[in-house]
Each structure stands twice: as C-alpha cells, then as structure tokens.
Amino acid sequence: xxxxxxxxxxxxxxxxxxxxxxxxxxxxxxxxxxxxxxEAFKKDPDQAILFVCPAQVxxxxxxEGTCIVNFEDCLExxxxxxxxxxxxxxxxxxxxxxxxxxx
Length: 103
Prior knowledge:
Oligomer: single chain
Structural class: alpha+beta
Largest sheet: 2 strands, antiparallel
Number of domains: 1
Strand order of the largest sheet: 1-6
Number of strands: 6
C-alpha cells in the first residue's frame, strides 16, 4: 500500500521535555558513570556544563561551589563530553543505563 503524501503534511504531536523523558526507561547502577573534576569546574568562568545537558543532570551546589551530578537522569547523549573537558563519561556497566521506548 503506497504512502500518501498528505500523511506527511499532518501536524505532528509535540511533546514537552518532561513528556519525552518519561518515554525513557532507566536502570540505575549504584555508582555514577559520570565524574566531574571539581577543581576544574570551580575555575570554569561560565560553568556551561550546568546549562547544556538536555536532562539537567548537573546542578550547582551554591554553598560549596561544586557540581552535583544526578547521574540517574542521564540520557547518555554525550553532550557533557563535548561541552567541557573536565567531565569524564563512561558507559554504564552492563545491563544498566537507558533504553529508549519510542524513537
């Protein structure tokens, strides 16, 4: 059955970031697969790592000036690796991490 071009012109469903994150299955490990060099983070003038992560994994500990890593929310996209060199990311150990349910 041929695909009708009109099907492509129909509006697509738009999901918020929270709705998209709900489509991701996660299995948590006991330890983080992301490590932040805290001294390098403190010296970074713009601390971009706090803003570039689509899952908002990185938060500022305002009291200590350090970076809190909520690795349980990680989407394993690698954006943190591109944004800053002081972030070390490795694949979660076997059987852990994320599974995308819908493209």
